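Anyone? Bumping this.
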Amino acid sequence: MPLLELQQRLISAIFQRDQLAAAANLVKTQGRLNSEQRVGIYRNSAHGILLDYLESLYPVSLELVGTEFFGRAAHNFIDQAPPTSPFLAEYGVGFAEHLAQLPALQELMWIVEVTQLEWARHAAWHTVNQASSDFTQLETLSAQEQAELRFQLPHSAQLLSSTAPIHSIWLAHQTEPYADKLSFEEIDLQTAEQVLIFREHRHLHQISLNHDDAAFLKAVQNQATMNELAEQFAEQLPWLFSIALQNAWLTGFTTTQPV
Amino acid sequence: MTPNPILGCGIGLRFQHIDQILAEKPPIPWLEILADNYLTPGSVQQDYALEIAEYYPVTLHGVGMSLGASDPFNETYFQRLKALADRIQPAWISDHLCWTSAHGWVSHDLLPLPYTEATIKHVVQRIREAQDRLERRLVIENVSSYLQYQQSSLTEWEFITAVAEEADCKILLDVNNIYVSAFNHDFDPCKYLDSIPIERVQQFHLAGYEDKGTHLLDTHGAKVSDPVWGLYALALKRFGALPTLIEWDNQIPSLEELLAETHKAMETQIYAFA
Ligand SMILES: [Fe+2]
């Protein structure tokens, strides 16, 4: 049998349980294990590597649903969407959507929102570096440039608008003594939260935003011009700007029309 | 820039230890960087790898080349690996004599090859191409295995020797993998060692396995076992005091515990030549 066909058969068995027998035909029965059990070791081992990875990516989701449930969901996810890239960090997007389909979680969508938050943290961490911000040129803009002035969030910024208090839930599951941490029992699961996540050098920031800051950053993300921001936020604007700049929520600006 | 010498016993760099290593700069002879985790240019991950390489001699160790696969090479993977190697100047780059991908799927696991003349031809050509792309001679590692193919007609030691000779690459002998595969396939690990050409071997790996009753599983999740220390002593006598690396990937211990394993390896070297 050509190598290509042998490899396709074995990898099919790794990601599809019903393909085990077809791959086992390629393998010798020896010692205390038959050929199907031997192929099964590889299925378990490849799944195990990916399960460990998903557990490291979604530690709070894992605690919320429990090891057994998480494991079953992860194994199904791995079979339905095997990795297609050698870059492991690209794997695991879509796990929240996979959980959202599961009947057991239909009344627990806040857990899925926490899973989305954990992916957002991962994505922000892996976003490549950007040059540090420079706002000194702002003062020299022409009137025409001023009209097209738009601000930018960090490239790594993830702005999440959730129906559940995902930031508080996430904090409650950390061992570190964060200042704004509540115990899980103290959290009202009905409270919506707006969360900003971004990476600054080697630090991942995660902030629960108040209503005004969230609306401002949303508008910036939607590429509102300076004039549009002034119209939307009126006399609040200078205050919103200074908060955003102090916290490194804005990292640059453009004076050309977005493409 | 001349690559730093790789001497003595080093450790595989794991993310859990990076901050401590950079803060304390403990005396570690060298580090093996798991290339795949640090390949994205401009990423915070790659910044860490570059910083580590400023202070320690390093090698790059990959799992993603998929040298034995029939799928085309992943262009981005090779471009990024070459770019990282050009910046870091590792003493060498290693990957495994196995395949990880087929069908467009990537298993992220080290899957064994059928040991046949046809496979030798295929893998030799792939290793040559990889060496050309990276502009470096590769070091290939033997993997643990849990199955043997019906079509295999050669032993693993005949296979790896032929591949290394014909591709003109070096060998990273994973002593634990030899022991695990010897147990699983009932062959003599000493015979394996004695069949590998001395001048081809560049480096050793040591790691811990788990005894599953029916087979040994290469988990990299425990201390090196006593029989593997014994086999390592034999390997030292045959191949000399080559650079040795402790791998630990699951239930990762403290840096101190990991370094204690490197000290044990150095003691084994001293006894082997006493
Ligand atoms: Fe190894």
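Late reply, but here is one note on the structure posted above: The longest helix of chain A spans residues 35-57.
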